[in-house]
Please model this.
Amino acid sequence: MPRPHRAASAAVAGLTLVAALLAGCGSDESTPTRTDTSITGSHRNAEATVSIFVEDDAFSPAEITITAGDTVAWHFDGDIPHGVQGIGDKAMGLNSPLFEVGDWSYTFTSPGEYRYLCPIHPDMRGKVIVEEA
Ligand SMILES: [Cu+2]
Model:
């Protein structure tokens, strides 16, 4: 049963979105012991979205501290492509497409330090420190 080819790009975009959502939600392999069992829903208090700007050859700010449950949104605005790629097992879920201009976000559910770099420019590095909620 052939499908119209023009649907393919929309489908790819949809899959990319789903993949991003799954990546954001599926990285809880090292969940710390939670003593606060009263929070059972998907919403914790005061979840925030924090912005990092990706211009040519730098993440700005290069280091941020957030609270578990917060989302980091990388805003790409350069003349050449950049990406976000985690360093080490802890940051494995950080794996964005390459953008010259675009947005990519990731929700950090587990406390710890997440280091990342741009896969094209390994000298472009950043760190997200996630504190316990
Ligand atoms: Cu780069």
The mean pLDDT is 79.
